[in-house]
Write a structure and sequence with these properties.
The chain is mainly beta. Helices cover about 0% and strands about 55% of the residues.
């Protein structure tokens, strides 16, 4: 099993920035990719960004140019730097990890609220 613990959510004004972090522990050998999904009220959970342990990243079209994902393999940590935030970015953000992009493991989620 792999455990994921997120941190860094909160309230920010539109145009502001936030950084989310997620640390993995347990059977780290079971994962080679980590990422972030989000779920807004009444909407389906959607991918935000994902990155492999060798640094290959992908982003949802809605966040390209505003969000950067990075991975620290030594610390087993994935970070999400979010800039130019919009009210529509408001959601619960979930850290995920797996082999490839399989999202086998999930964190508890952290709330991000962007006020207009």
């Amino acid at each position: 099993q792999v455990q994921l613990v997120e941190s860094g959510g909160g309230l920010v004004q539109a145009g502001g920035s936030l950084r989310l972090s997620c640390v993995a522990s347990g059977r780290i050998s079971d994962i080679n990719a980590m990422g972030w999904y989000r779920q807004a009220p009444g909407k389906r959970r959607e991918v935000v960004a994902q990155i492999t342990t060798d640094g290959n990243a992908m982003y949802a079209d809605s966040v390209k140019g505003r969000i950067n994902i990075s991975i620290d393999n030594a610390k087993k940590m994935v970070r999400l730097e979010m800039n130019s935030l919009k009210p529509e970015d408001t959601a619960v953000y979930y850290c995920e990890a797996g082999w490839g992009y399989t999202s086998d493991y999930w964190g508890q989620g952290t709330q991000v609220t962007v006020s207009s």
